[in-house]
Amino acid sequence: MNIFNRFIFTLFCLLALSTQTLALDLTQATKDTTYILSDTQHTIRVTLDDYAVAFGGGNLFFDENNNQIDSRNFGNNSGVDTGVALPLNVAGMRLTETSHKIWDLTLDSATIAAIKNQGGKRFTIKTYYNSANRIKSLFYGANINDAPSPFMPQRTINLCWESCPVSATLTITSINTFPANEKAASTTHTLTANDPAATFS
Fold this sequence. Notes:
Strand order of the largest sheet: 1-10-8-3-4
Structural class: alpha+beta
Helix content: 10-25%
Keywords: Signal
Order of helices and strands: HHEEEEEEEHEEE
Number of strands: 10
Strand content: 25-35%
Radius of gyration: 25 Å
C-alpha cells in the first residue's frame, strides 16, 4: 500500500508540474489594449502577470481581413521595469537571466513596411508559439524546483496604424408608439445624415 501511495503522489506531482508549463500570460489590461503605431511609434509595451524573459521567434502579423502579411521576430525586446535575476530551465538549458514583467516590443522595420504597404488600419499580432520547437514561446518564466520554465501560449495583440477607425453605426429612433396589436396607421421615417456625402441603401 505504501508503494501505491508513493506512485499516486508522484503522478500528482507530475500533473501539477505539467499544468505550470502554460502558467505565464499577458495581463488582462494588455489583452484588452489596442496599440497605435505610426511612422514615429514602432514600439508596444506589454505587461506580463509574472517575471519573464523574452526569446526570439516568428510572430505572425495579419491585416484586418485575417491575411498574413509578415512573419518575423520583433526588432528589439527590452525589459523596462526593475529586473530580477531568476533561474530558467528552457529546452534543457539551465541559466540565470534578468527577468521583467514589463517589456517594450519594437516591430522590425520590415514589418512596419509590410503594414504600410498593406494600406489598412487594423492589424493583429499572433505571438510566437510552436510546440514542436525547442524554444516554444515568446516569453518564458522562472523555473520552480528545476522544473521546465513556464511559458506563454500564443496570444493575439491588436494594432492600429495611425488611428483606430470607429465602425460606423446607424441608430433609428421613433417617437411614435404602436398599440399592442400593431394595427396602427403606416408611419414614414426620413433618414438624415450629418455627412452630406452619406448614402443609405
